[in-house]
């Protein structure tokens, strides 16, 4: 892919992001931050490339370090988002459902 | 060696991952669809990781799996155990990890460009790629050190009050300028082999420094903006690395996260009527109180008791509860919901009103109320509920202060002038839970609501006070 097509994808994605994020309800802004945190750890792709490659041992270890960091974020970010989202409930439904996500009580 | 020109399906898979991430954010438009959205996010991440693993020659799969297991285990444990009140710290900590990971990946690409397919002819790293990796490393480093400071401030390891270095604007601008010049030099330099150019290290070092310098002058009340801003940076760092790797999943994600953080920063600034630049410049809340504040302290005010509050609210038709950061500090969300339930049992119409900047991050109060099992259709945003105070019998303020201060509407000299606030002064009765009459919100401004005829101050720890009200209601 040449630079211009990559740039096009980037610019389009910025617009998509703009409209999608404005449609997020303010009540869910904290989960929004948690989940954007998780998905920005897609940087793990770069970390995997670095750690998989032969050639530079230093680069490999840096890559592995980045894999650890990004994994903390991926698993932690999605899990904490899930935990928060499970707490958002509407009334008129019997609220306490065992196993429907772990709020601390 | 050519890592990009492989199977076109690989690029399609990364695109699918990117689309999954868009759907993840799209799901958050309503609580009903949000969990499905989160699943899309997980699927997207799974696709991206598996695609990478399958399409690259993996020299050491066990090591990689071990790294994922270690990181994933830690992340999962933290996510299970974290208290909802500590969510701002957690998010700041997670941002710092993304930032550091971006730096590590950029450094790895610098040392081993061949693996990333960015080695040009003559054994030099392509100039475009040099700019991209310098940007990725710099933004990542700023995200990292900035988030570490934000974490320390939010977590109480460091005072939340601004730290003002003399000449900090000059220092910051000079450092930023130096980073830009170094990036240009790095791209044009003749020394462009793997790991060859020492300018890269200077650049990364300066970026760590500027992240630190940018956040220390910013006070606790501005943390919602800072956290959102760092969120944005972590996205741009991912996008820059996506350019280096020609990876659509990373570019789409980076753009999404970058715009998301930027929009949240904008919403937070608007909710405080502050410009983004003035927040970044820092120093808000450094004044120990406006002139004449001491004189105002002497004005008469009424003290109420838990019994007064219980009695009046029980008889009320409608009660609007306004929670703020103080509720989070006191962990009073659960007892508050019990109070709401008891009032509803007495036939009172109970609503919760949330200001965009209540708490230490966007949406913080909503999560705490959700945790306490307050139904989300009883929780209202500022503009949706502000017209109802005129008809409300009771406004019940717990741990909030600046967001109910009428000075924002009337007093042009007030530091919070122009900030949209709740019209609590229109309610028939106001209960204001506060620790003591001394402390004055984060903006350091006195609040006329304390001294109004219809206001009763409930001076106590928020949780203790609500527990007492609950007891009185039960009697």
From TrEMBL, chain A:
GO terms for molecular function: NADP binding; proton-translocating NAD(P)+ transhydrogenase activity. It comes from the Bacteria. One of its GO terms (cellular component) is plasma membrane. The keyword Translocase applies. Its main location: membrane. It is an enzyme of class 7 (translocase). It holds the Pfam family PNTB_4TM. It is found in: Cell inner membrane. It is a multi-pass membrane protein. GO terms for biological process: NADPH regeneration. Keywords: Cell inner membrane, Cell membrane, Membrane, NAD, NADP, Translocase, Transmembrane, Transmembrane helix. Signal peptide: none annotated. It catalyses: NAD(+) + NADPH + H(+)(in) = NADH + NADP(+) + H(+)(out). PANTHER family: NAD(P) TRANSHYDROGENASE (PTHR10160), PROTON-TRANSLOCATING NAD(P)(+) TRANSHYDROGENASE (PTHR10160:SF19). This is proton-translocating NAD(P)(+) transhydrogenase. It comes from Novosphingobium barchaimii LL02.
UniProtKB/TrEMBL annotation, chain B:
It comes from the Bacteria. Pfam families: PNTB. The chain crosses the membrane at residues 6-25, 37-55, 61-79, 91-111, 131-152, 173-193, 199-218, 249-269. It is found in: Cell inner membrane. It catalyses: NAD(+) + NADPH + H(+)(in) = NADH + NADP(+) + H(+)(out). It is a multi-pass membrane protein. GO terms for cellular component: plasma membrane. InterPro entries: DHS-like_NAD/FAD-binding_dom, NADH_DH_b, PNTB-like. The transhydrogenation between NADH and NADP is coupled to respiration and ATP hydrolysis and functions as a proton pump across the membrane. This is NAD(P) transhydrogenase subunit beta. It comes from Novosphingobium barchaimii LL02.
